[in-house]
Amino acid sequence: MDISIILTYRCDSKCSMCYIWKNPTLPNEEVTLKTLEKLPNHFDNLNITGGEPTARTDLADIVDLLYPKGKITEISTNGLHTDKVLPIIKKHPNIKVRYSLEAIGEKNNLIRGEENGFEKKLEGLKTLKENGGTDLGFATVIQDDNIDELMNIYRLSRDMGVEMATSTLHNAFQFHKSDNYFYERKKVAKEVEKLIQALLKTSSVKNWFRAYLNLGLIEKILGHDRLITCTAASDFIFVDPWSDVYACNVRPDLLMGNLEKQSWDEIVHGKKADEIRSKVAQCTQNCWMVTTARTAMRNPALTFLPKLGPLGWVMLNKLKVTLGKNICFENYIDYEKIEPSNKEAKREFYLGTTTKRNIQSKTEKHYKMGDFFNR
Ligand code: SF4
């Protein structure tokens, strides 16, 4: 169904919850147009991301190549380089563009280590809208440091007429980081309830299912099991900047093959792929990454339709909210059982700092993560 392609691990943001920027790739080792040509033409969602994808000087050519391969093509960017995205939007106005935004004003800049980041993103998204962009929005990583801003970002998005996508803190090889813990799980989860309620009040079907996605985020925040079994390697796949293909963007041991050296069919239909799929079936990480959560919510036979579980939840709770009632979250979420928080593991902020970078090259083992858990 879905694919995420990490074009580069270069990035000019300095986020506290993602250390991609500390571990950049070398430009001459990054996945090429020739390799990307091998991808088939049948994806539902094709996400072009990073690192910061606008760091690639050939981004416009890559988008031209990949655009026909996905029903929905998305660019996930830090939003600091609208000049690079604007020509793409002028050519393909329906490309989905998400600008990362963690808070209003200086707090965004602190969490993401960006000089004037908030102002640039706001202006940038307005420019894309004025130039015909039809699927624009912000993407927010819900965490203790921005939880008081969650509804402010929602209201800002609504007032600007753009979307708001949410995810939450994870430990994952993609972030080159394994200490993304919550400090106050219940406080964070309770704020997400307000967002769910607000999303269900809108007339957007997309928002109603986003509400369910956020219900899954609450489970993740509290350290509970996933709402729906993961189908990574069957319905989702992840390509890193070295053309390595993984089942998902969390576990570095789920390597399926290399798109530069192998064909697509060899990678997805080979014996190795079967082994990886059985590892996915036994996976005990309780992640709820947007990538694999969005995939798991959909019906594998008719992928434009949801599975019965999310559909039933959405119908029931949309009806409740329409009738002016509150959602009974306690019917779905066990607030008595919350994993311990880790108040000691405070995330550092890097705004204005110069931090030594560990340039990654093909000669190194890429993801030196050790064991980690998403609980
Ligand atoms: S549940 Fe396991 S296999 Fe699925 S995305 Fe999470 S870490 Fe990967």
Please, could you describe this protein's structure?
- With 375 residues, the protein is an alpha/beta fold.
- Helix content is 34%, strand content 13%.
- It is built from twelve helices and nine strands.
- The protein has a nine-stranded mixed beta sheet, with helices on both faces.
- α3 packs parallel to α5, α7 packs antiparallel against α8 and α8 packs across α12.
- The chain starts with a strand and ends in a 53-residue tail after the last helix.
- The model has no long low-confidence stretch (mean pLDDT 93).
- Bound molecules: iron/sulfur cluster.
- The site of iron/sulfur cluster has 12 residues, from loops.
Number of helices: 12
Instruction: Please tally the β strands and state the result.
Output: 9
Shape: globular
The Rg value, from CA coordinates, equals: 20 Å
Which spans have pLDDT < 50 for at least 5 consecutive residues? Answer: none
Computed structural class: alpha/beta
Report the average pLDDT across residues. Answer: 93
